[in-house]
Sequence to fold (444 residues):
Amino acid sequence: MKSQSPHILLINPWIHDFAAYDVWAKPYGLLWLSGILRSHGFSVTYMDCLDRFHPRARPVDPEERNGRGPYLKERIPKPHVLSDVPRYFSRYGIRPEWFRQDLAQTPEPDLILVTSLMTYWYPGVAETIREVRSFFPEVPIILGGVYATLCRDHAMRATGADAVVEGAAADQILAVVEKYTGIDKVPNFDPHNLDSYPYPAFDLQQRIGYIPILTSLGCPYSCDYCASKILQPRRMLRSPEHVVGEIEYWHDNYGVKNFAFYDDALLVNSDTHAVPLFERIIRTGLNIRLHTPNAVHIREINKKIAQLMAAAGVSTLRLGLETLDFNERTMDHKVREDEFFQAAAYLREAGFTSDRVGAYLLVGLPGQDMAPVENAIRMVKQTGITPILAYYSPIPLTAMWLAAVEASRYDLAADPIYTNNAIFPCQLSFDWQQLSRLKQLIAF
Fold:
């Protein structure tokens, strides 16, 4: 222990993949932890290996594409186990030499926290930890996040972290810090009351192109392909007042205009949650743009909700449709056929055009025939909504996992690298022509 105010370094690692793009993607949990630690008096440093606004990078306008944009990338060799995939492989994020320069200028921390997201992105996590270890060989490195929770044993073997933390880190972070630094802090927030949490420390970023917003945690549904219930078993809500207060804070103090809702179930129980939230946003009169990259539940969209979303400034609306094969729909029970077409009508009436609203369609499911997907693309387009292909990634511990393991041409259970949705692991082969045909159907 070096001082009574330990220095904690938090790192968002590189991505190694065939494709990656910043579609309102920020390490919300890591920056939430940063805010919690800072509010308890700890010295905090944040490094983002995916930072598109790094000082050594080409200047980029944060307002461009509503805050979205391509990551820097450098082509690297494919993992040898994926040599059959006819695509280039890259490291996405800042140049390694930039990261080393930043580490060299950082005071030695007492503890290092690294996050993780997709299970198949662990090679980028491992490379990040190797670089950090070369600068701070004696400092404990703790790994958390989605991959760490779903694949704990693999993460311990493959990443070089000293310890792996599963589950919601906000509940555990002060205990973790005490274990490795000896400093005991009494929590100044209630883990069961989201309104008591400090805001995530988005101000630690080099520049702010957009702000992710969470109005709730968890989801009441248990879809076969989704890990939401595993990662966040409890359903927790923030008050509309607290959410709007945060939006006003980032808008008034940092000029932020784009806000992306990260909820898994934004519109569920809308009378007591989404309706007062959107009404309150409208009353602020703020000139902002709202986005829903995680998709909203179609069943919850009625005439009032559609009009409120339009008036509140929702400019990018994504719907969790997944399939139009309603007769064989057993993987979830989120929406019926009549509910989808009625919701589409309400959205058109409220002024949502095809360039603003899209419906996700799952592609690459175990044993999936492409003919129903092609039919779904055509039907969705007829409603005035843009179909968006969502490539299926097998997720350990979900209800669909065993079916995915049986259908895959790879040994999914042996290595998370095989769960990469970019390689369509549950299809007999990777078929560029088939994928191109689906994209052409959407474009024309």
